[in-house]
């Protein structure tokens, strides 16, 4: 994977970690295809404006990552608009905060659809496009909290299965010069982790999530830019020897 002009798809790019990653990669000189669901179209358009304001090139693609034909079309649209797909950041995820005792089967299924099947579909269609291009690529998924943790541990297994075979560094995608890694955020202060009843748990953003996972109110947290920084490194050409890894960016507090 060379330093030639590259294109990244970032799913869930309308806010939070996805937005931070999009802005960081655009700053690094990578063209960005910004994805989110139609309900987030206005926020996604604003992120595109931010990218363009800092001199980057972008396109926006509305799609639900849990729907196969939409993911396939998303990859095709990124190629049509920007010329290729060299980086896939399968960042989109949903995380209802609450007890499994209160969770409906429908909610559970939706979490699995988005957080696990959606990542698989992004991995699949990005990899097929990268193999077609013949110049390698970078694939990253996000692992973060009952149903959310279950879905994200699935992402960890999926990520490793694309690299390891029979417990050897045997390499389903390495022969195509494609690396596959996952980043594992701790409590990152975004709209997903800032909820209305934070005030009941200390008043600071993220307080409810920290209480839910058993962390103290003053436990470690950070902004989404810290995730964007590790993603920025992992997609660089010199990171070719890092693959099959789940990299924790959590201040030492494991939450998933």
From TrEMBL:
GO terms for biological process: fatty acid biosynthetic process. SUPFAM superfamilies: NAD(P)-binding Rossmann-fold domains. Transmembrane segments: none annotated. One of its GO terms (molecular function) is quinone binding. Gene3D superfamilies: NAD(P)-binding Rossmann-like Domain (3.40.50.720). Belongs to the short-chain dehydrogenases/reductases (SDR) family. This is Uncharacterized protein.
